[in-house]
Design goal:
The protein is mainly β. It is built from one helix and seven strands, in the order αβββββββ.
């Protein structure tokens, strides 16, 4: 969890840190209960707060694509589902936040991770996750709620983790 002073959120630092925390948690490898070899895969589910401020149930599929001298390369497939009855925090433009309900939500992404058993964090990784949220705004009189005119908020989180000791020499930094 990240706790920031009240005035730090004004400059957008809170969203930057939320994105960093989300990227690090996305690339953290949760190991399967039993060893798997090349082409083996496992699914990890957790509940997290996305950098958009929405609580999601996240499913990550890790697949072993390569094993070389104790270094494992994994592909990562991500799907996220919004928890029920939430409000999306929106900046109303006058320095205040408004909360608007979600009518629809879609989120998916991909990535890769290079991991070693003796490393606390992955030694390299990248992820790209997209979120599209259709807002449930009050309808104008005489129109159905939501519908085609409901705004859709789209975000994309791209994270890259790299460097450090133990990086395979055939990999570019």
């Amino acid at each position: 969890a990240v706790e920031m002073p009240k005035d730090a959120a004004e400059g957008g630092l809170d969203r930057l840190l939320d994105g960093l925390v989300e990227t690090m948690s996305m690339l953290t490898v949760a190991l399967p209960p039993k060893p798997v070899g090349t082409d083996g895969f496992w699914i990890v589910s957790d509940r997290v707060k996305a950098s958009t401020g929405i609580e999601v149930v996240r499913y990550r599929v890790f697949k072993v694509t390569k094993i070389d001298n104790g270094t494992v390369t994994l592909s990562l497939d991500v799907r996220q589902y919004a928890a029920a009855d939430q409000k999306l925090p929106i900046d109303s433009g006058n320095g205040q936040k408004a909360e608007i309900g979600l009518e629809a939500f879609d989120s998916q992404g991909k990535g890769s991770v290079i991991w070693k058993a003796d490393s606390f964090l992955p030694i390299r990784g990248d992820t790209n996750v997209r979120i599209a949220a259709k807002l449930a705004v009050p309808a104008a009189p005489g129109t159905p709620p939501g519908g085609r005119n409901a705004p859709v908020v789209q975000t994309e989180l791209t994270g890259i983790l790299g460097g450090g000791t133990g990086v395979p020499t055939d990999e570019k930094p």
